[in-house]
Amino acid sequence: AQKVTQAQTEISVVEKEDVTLDCVYETRDTTYYLFWYKQPPSGELVFLIRRNSFDEQNEISGRYSWNFQKSTSSFNFTITASQVVDSAVYFCALGSNAGKSTFGDGTTLTVKP
Amino acid sequence: GAVVSQHPSWVICKSGTSVKIECRSLDFQATTMFWYRQFPKQSLMLMATSNEGSKATYEQGVEKDKFLINHASLTLSTLTVTSAHPEDSSFYICSAGGAGSYEQYFGPGTRLTVT
């Protein structure tokens, strides 16, 4: 069975602080994909990143960076110099070769000015 | 990325009535579509997998007679909530993927409120 755990339910930081959102996953598949999505109050999911199980290279995109550690089954997301507009619910998800995704419970990030 | 639309974006209906939600892939052919449900402050839970031209596959605990899914073409899947009750009030999100693809493209969601 697939499982995604986001242990942090809520995080609150002050603007310009760095913040890391944790994600731990479980799967028996050898090939899988990991995703991060942002869900603002409007509800629409905003795709942030997709990483396949064979690519452990870390990625940086502007203020966002991702650390994929297969050895610990983790795919953590860091926002550098957070901004108020980063406030949202962030979901980590695990995708199978059938195309469907298993989502974590989400982390609500609040960035205060 | 690919574009997936949902209609309506929100709907309010009375208890006992049925509501149909459409999910369209606008710029690619989606052999598979997925329907998720999200209750307030909770995660997205997969309800069913919709395959073009065949019956949908429902996740455990989801009533197939209550949530009717039709995937009659490669660009359209519909979810009908039959005899809706207030506990069916939720945010319904569809996603679409191509054949043999790990990709999923999510629609903007439909907020259903049953009074």
Explain what this protein looks like in three dimensions.
The complex is a heterodimer of chains A (113) and B (115). Chain A is 0% helix and 53% strand. Chain A has 113 residues and is an all-beta fold. In chain A, a hairpin with a 2-residue loop joins β7 (59-61) and β8. The radius of gyration of chain A is 14 Å and the shape is globular. Chain B is mostly beta strands and 115 residues long. Chain B is 0% helix and 52% strand. Chain B has no helices and eleven strands. In chain B, strands 2, 4, 5, 6, 9, 10 and 11 form a seven-stranded mixed sheet that branches. In chain B, strands 1-3-8-7 form a four-stranded antiparallel sheet, with no helix packed on it. The A-B interface holds A 33, 37, 43-45, 47, 50, 52, 91, 95-106 and B 1, 32, 34, 38, 42-46, 49, 91, 93, 95, 97, 100-104, 106, 108-109, 111.
Global structural class of chain B? mainly beta
Q: What helical percentage do the residues of chain B reach?
A: under 10%
Low-confidence stretches of chain B: none
Radius of gyration of chain A: 14 Å
Question: What is the H-and-E element order of chain A?
Answer: EEEEEEEEEEEE
Low-confidence stretches of chain A: none
User: Strand content of the residues of chain B, in percent?
Assistant: over 45%
Return the string of H and E elements of chain B. Answer: EEEEEEEEEEE
Give the helix/strand layout.
The complex is a heterodimer of chains A (113) and B (115).
Chain A: E1 3-5, E2 10-14, E3 19-21, E4 24-26, E5 33-39, E6 46-52, E7 59-61, E8 64-69, E9 74-79, E10 88-95, E11 101-103, E12 107-112
Parallel strand pairs in A: 2-12
Antiparallel strand pairs in A: 1-4, 3-9, 5-6, 5-10, 7-8, 8-9, 10-11, 10-12
Chain B: E1 4-7, E2 10-13, E3 19-25, E4 32-38, E5 44-51, E6 57-58, E7 67-73, E8 76-81, E9 90-97, E10 105-106, E11 110-114
Parallel strand pairs in B: 2-11
Antiparallel strand pairs in B: 1-3, 3-8, 4-5, 4-9, 5-6, 7-8, 9-10, 9-11
